[in-house]
């Protein structure tokens, strides 16, 4: 997902979307506001089917 799309999702949650903030930080802030663990890019396998799953796991495997 592109950063512009993530910022659009983040704004209604009141998440800081200033230029310079990483995609990872913004997504983790959204996860916290949604009441979830800020787990974006911290796992290699995930049992949840969240909005970020594809982007999260693809980038985790590339490390």
Description:
- The protein is mostly helical and 63 residues long.
- It has helices at residues 3-10, 23-34, 53-61.
- The longest helix has 12 residues, at 23-34.
Describe the structure concisely for a colleague.
The chain is mostly helical and 63 residues long. The protein has helices spanning 3-10, 23-34, 53-61.
Outline the fold blueprint.
Elements: H1 3-10, H2 23-34, H3 53-61
Which of globular, elongated, flat, extended, rod-shaped describes the shape? globular
Question: What's the end-to-end separation, in Å?
Answer: 18 Å
- The string of secondary-structure elements, in order, is HHH
Query: Helicity range of the residues?
Result: 40-55%
> What is the count of DSSP helices, taking H or I runs of 4+ residues?
3
Strand content: under 5%
**How would you state the average pLDDT, rounded?**
89
Give the count of structural domains.
Answer: 1
Which runs of at least 5 residues are low in confidence (pLDDT < 50)?
A: none
Class inferred from helices and paired strands: mainly alpha
Round the Cα radius of gyration to an integer and report it: 11 Å
Number of strands: 0
């Amino acid at each position: 997902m592109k950063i512009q799309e993530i910022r659009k999702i983040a704004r209604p949650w009141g998440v800081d979307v200033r230029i310079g903030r990483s995609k990872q930080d913004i997504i983790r802030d959204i996860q916290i506001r949604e009441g979830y663990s800020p787990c974006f890019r911290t796992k290699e396998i995930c049992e949840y089917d969240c909005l970020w799953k594809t982007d999260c796991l693809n980038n985790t495997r590339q490390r």
